[in-house]
Design goal:
This protein has 207 residues and is α/β, with parallel strands linked by helices. It has a single domain (50-205), classed as 3-Layer(aba) Sandwich (Rossmann fold). Helix content is 49%, strand content 12%. The protein is built from 7 helices and 5 strands; from the N terminus they run ααβαβαβαβαβα. A 5-stranded parallel sheet has the order 3-2-1-4-5, sandwiched between helices. Strand 2 (92-96), helix 4 and strand 3 form a beta-alpha-beta unit. The longest helix has 24 residues, at 24-47. It is globular, with a radius of gyration of 26 Å.
């Protein structure tokens, strides 16, 4: 009936489109999935890296303990770097790091450890101003240009390989290979998350 008030209300009500917006939980699950895939790819890139014959091994620094000894993470990097000598893959080790909060020069500690484990002191170059990945790459590139060498292997933790290689590429170094130690600790979860943010930031800003 034309005068039926209920019919008029029904005609004026908005019609359902039948479409539902994704729930917040679904969006979060997608984001978690993407982040997990990103973390896996970043980790596999670092773990899959292999060293090649090169002029230089660029060893990125890490924490030194208060007693002046390298942290287990740094020891793992140095052990990996020392193995390159046994396979005769490089002629020079460029060890780079800054002065940590503990007051020790990372590069000197790295040099001393390598010498104690069979790498001749004459084959090691120390960079005491490599406070971050970009500076390490820039200083290594400057030394390599001055000595007429180009090819390098990068030695660092698996989660850091991608950004370290990018920094060296930008500095003009021909990175032919890399190696990450098979050593892990709970702190890797934080470090991996940090690299997941730092890598794209570095890619777009150079910092």
């Amino acid at each position: 009936m034309a005068g039926d008030p209920l019919a008029a209300v029904g005609e004026g009500a908005p019609r359902s489109t039948g479409r539902r917006r994704p729930s917040l939980i679904r969006v979060l699950l997608v984001l978690v999935g993407v982040a997990a895939l990103y973390a896996i790819l970043l980790s596999r890139y670092g773990l899959g890296a292999r060293p090649q014959p090169a002029d230089v091994a660029i060893v990125f620094g890490s924490q030194v303990r208060t007693d002046g000894t390298p942290s287990p993470r740094l020891v793992a990097r140095l052990e990996t770097a020392a193995k390159l000598q046994r396979h005769k893959l490089v002629r020079t080790w460029f060890v780079s790091g800054g002065i940590g909060r503990e007051g020790h020069d990372e590069s000197r500690v790295m040099r001393d450890w390598l010498v104690a484990h069979g790498v001749p002191d004459s084959m090691i170059v120390c960079d005491s101003l490599g406070r971050n990945s970009r500076l390490t790459a820039d200083h290594a590139a400057a030394w390599m240009r001055a000595h007429g060498v180009r090819r390098a292997n990068v030695i660092t933790q698996y989660f850091h390989v991608a950004r370290a290689v990018m920094a060296c590429d930008r500095a003009g170094i021909e990175v032919v290979g890399a190696r990450a130690p098979r050593w892990y600790e709970p702190r890797d979860l934080y470090s991996l998350g940090r690299e997941m943010v730092a890598l794209p930031v570095y890619a777009f800003s150079g910092r």
